[in-house]
Write a structure and sequence with these properties.
This protein is α+β, with helices and mostly antiparallel strands. It has twelve helices and nine strands. The chain has helices spanning 36-42, 45-50, 68-71, 117-123, 130-138, 186-192, 222-231, 237-242, 249-252, 264-283, 294-311, 317-324, and strands at 2-7, 79-83, 95-99, 103-106, 147-152, 165-173, 208-219, 245-246, 259-262. Strands 1, 4, 5, 6, 7, 8 and 9 form a seven-stranded mixed beta sheet that branches. Strands 2-3 form a two-stranded antiparallel sheet. Helix 10 runs antiparallel to helix 11 (294-311). The longest helix is centred in the last third of the chain and has 20 residues, at 264-283.
């Protein structure tokens, strides 16, 4: 299995630094961004403007931007961070952590809430088996084999007008996903869980760490194309030519709830869409990007071959045969 991970828009390719022009980046706090409410509430725009392009490891811990979940996806440095609990009114200490190079935080929110009204009456807002759900979810992904697809929700300068998910790139998972726990005192936890809605209130930190292998990464040059379109509006169709939208009904379901698992077939479809984009960029003959992206093209080809090899031409054949043939 493979995974889709949502990112908040960043104007310098998620390089582990504050945006080059923080004031102009209104997308990260848009309604359809990643944790937009949290970012909007905690963002210190004045500080970010003074420290534009500053590498996060050089900043005091308390000044790490709230978009840190995705800011170091393609950065090379380790960043000390702390996870404050989303419910700030509770007496819960932050989790101290390190955002490693080429790493993001994400969370499969679909698994973390009780959606059915009948079950809410039994369990409250949170499922009683969250730890098992997360264990089953992370167990689907294999380091060195599973592919991470990075994407932006509607709040981005490329697909905002179309209200479409935007595929940013991909890379191979490097290590097993990691989770952490909040240390909540027994009395405090008992008090929180005394209410019906929070009877299964989790201690697990809803921030899962995914690290990828930078030697396999493919990141489409949207930043360069956005700048080119702004400076050359008469030639803006080049941006539309190369962008990768996720608008197929069969794919959209894999891009909801921030982080979702997808199968080999959907993975291959997305890889072919990325390859098509790279071909379009090459057709533009380095007018926008001063690179022919040959390395990225080769990486995509390697990923496609790897998934086909694992998937096989007839992935369901074994299951079908088992229906008709007795085990030897």
């Amino acid at each position: 299995m493979h995974v889709t991970i949502r990112m908040a828009w960043h104007d310098s390719d998620w390089n582990g630094a504050i945006c080059a022009n923080p004031e102009a980046n209104s997308y990260c706090v848009g309604t359809h961004s990643l944790l937009s409410g949290r970012i909007e509430k905690k963002r210190d725009l004045g500080f970010e403007k003074r420290k534009a392009s500053a590498a996060l490891p050089t900043l005091p811990l308390e000044n790490i931007p709230p978009c840190y979940w995705s800011i170091n996806a393609f950065g090379d440095s380790a960043i000390p961070i702390q996870h404050a609990h989303a419910f700030s009114w509770l007496n819960i200490s932050p989790v101290q952590d390190v955002l490693e190079p080429h790493t993001v935080f994400t969370w499969p929110f679909r698994l973390s809430f009780v959606h059915d009204e009948k079950n809410k009456k039994r369990h409250g807002n949170y499922p009683p088996d969250l730890e098992k759900r997360i264990e089953n979810f992370t167990g689907k992904f294999i380091p060195g084999e599973s592919i991470i697809f990075f994407y932006a929700n509607y709040d981005n300068p490329v697909s905002a007008d179309d209200m479409k998910y935007l595929l940013l790139g991909c890379s191979v998972l490097a290590t097993e996903p990691e989770t952490t726990e909040f240390k909540i005192g027994a009395d405090e936890l008992k008090r929180i869980r005394s209410r019906q809605k929070t009877r299964n209130f989790p201690t697990m930190n809803w921030a899962m760490k995914f690290k990828h292998d930078p030697t396999t990464r493919v990141l489409l040059p949207y930043r360069e194309y956005v700048k080119y379109a702004e400076e050359n509006p008469e030639d803006a169709e080049k941006l539309e030519d190369m962008r990768v939208l996720v608008d197929e009904p069969s794919l959209v379901s894999g891009f909801k709830y921030v982080c979702m698992d997808i199968d080999d077939d959907k993975c291959l479809y997305l890889l072919y869409k990325l390859r098509k984009s790279i071909k379009k960029i090459q057709e533009h003959n380095q007018v926008v990007v001063k690179s022919d992206l040959l390395a990225e093209e080769q990486r995509i080809e390697n990923l496609i071959r790897g998934v086909w090899k694992k998937r096989g031409l007839y992935p369901s054949l074994e299951k079908v045969l088992n229906l008709y043939l007795d085990d030897p």
